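Retro notes
What went well: the complex prediction finally ran end to end.
Inputs used:
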Amino acid sequence: MAAPESGDGNNGAARMVTLISSDNTRFEVEAAAASLSQTLQLTILDGGGGGGDGIPLPNVDSATLSKVLEYCIKHAPAAANGGAPNATAVDRAELERFDNEFVNIDQSVLYSLIMAAHNLEIEGLQSLVAKKVADMIKGKSPMEIRRTLGFPDPTPEEQAEMNAHMLEYGWAYE
Amino acid sequence: MDIDALAGGGGGDRLTRLSDGVLGHILSFLPAPEAARSATLSRRWRHIFAAVHTLSFNESDRRPNLQDDDDDDVRSVWSLDCYDHPPTRPPRSIPAPPFATGVLAALLGRHRGAARARAPLRAIRVRFDIFIEAASATAVDAVVSYAVLDAGGDLRHVDLRFGGGPIICNREYSLRQHGPASPPCTNDYAVPTSLFSCAALHTLRLGPCKLNLPSTVTLPLLDTLHLVRVTDTGTTNIQRLVSACPRLADLSLKACLDLTALSVLGTRLRSLTLKCCHDLTSVAVYSSQLETFKYRGAVPPPSFLTMHNGAHHISWCALDFCGDEASDPAQLVGLAAFLQLFTSTKYLRLKSARLGCSIGHGIFSSLHGFPVLSHIEITGMVPDGDTAVVTTIRRILEWTPSLEIMSLFFLPELEEIEENN
């Protein structure tokens, strides 16, 4: 599962980098996995994150970061394979199973992941978590969506405004 | 960066604090009319629909009880009639608005909000179960033309399906006679030609429809091309389209009946699917990376598939022969030559009228076998008292020293099906 490294001239054993969460926990991870993050990729290509240095991530707490890295480690081999159009059906099914399981989580964890995926620019993870929220919304009435997403109940003014808006969007409800 | 948002707070508040782009990304996974409807959620969400990068229109949503294909389906949008009620009414109880109404309203909806939220489109998806050309062609034209313009040369994924149901033709696995190959239903609609000049296009799925190409086709980044029941107005249009895609990795042609010869010059091709293109007699592949090959049709003539750079990377292979089990010498020679191409495969799926029993014929005894094949799956009918299948299985076992799993699926005999009907 050690993905071949490219671009940084290293050979032999997979290069490791250290990431430091907002609460100062250090995570050592293969460069190939961490490079799924567009934000980190450049730093890593420049040789950052190795040795005792570590890359600080002040926006991501350790619980979220460990979850993010779980995703990156799982997806790194397929990503190294160029999106893997050639992946076998078995490999794909396994990744899909992993993904489904991965987002089967508390809403608060999900939101933390959305923000971390966004900040770290991990494309696959961004889509995975966005799709999960979309699935939570799908087929529901606006009021149900508000409840599902944990919006506070609307004030009477807000309710009136929403109702007015409803009329404008009547076509979508026909 | 959304540092504050990490601090916690109510879930909805946290979500709402995300940038327009992130919220737009979420709505991009919903059918367009449903995504547009999010404008009614709260003030914050009013203009988010303008930030979606994908528009999906799913005509089949309006008939939720009809068969679904196995692709990622997008659920019901149209059946919601008022703010506070979930869609509990039985489906079909209200007439759906014309497809065009939803499309035009959604396109307008993208321009309703503040200009700052606007994100260019990256992908469009349109899916019909039944495409009634006169009623829907203008709306589909509008979606495509709008997307090409809106994306500003950066449209990446286009998926336009104008018919549901089984994709492949209804030639049968017959023990007795060939049924006449009934023409699959086709569609005279042709998508706007501006689509074929989108230089950023990565994925194009199209059909059933007519293929009308502009004089110049340039799709330098296209890696996935799937055509289903595409009729070819110029007879060489499919070839022209394929030739315009140097980076093609995944090519799938299903029931493209006008196609007689195909040449794939691109060297990156990894997956090739040819199903029910019954007039196709010659295919040339120049990629040395082909890994997956899927075929359905009659037993091909000996020179059907030419792999100019070798077939040694093919590791996954599905062959589905319709019509009678091959029996005359010409067919058997063709079948032997065809199988010989796939001796490097690890996974083989074989489907034929009589469980591949033509392989039992003497002509196959010279075949070198499949040294690395680990999985084989064979499907077909076994008539009473048919012992040819025993010879076949024995030969396959001789051919496959690395075999781990063999699965046999027995189809009911055609005769019985007819009687039951």
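What we learned: Residues 1-11 of chain A have pLDDT under 50 and may be disordered.
What to try next: split runs per interface for comparison.
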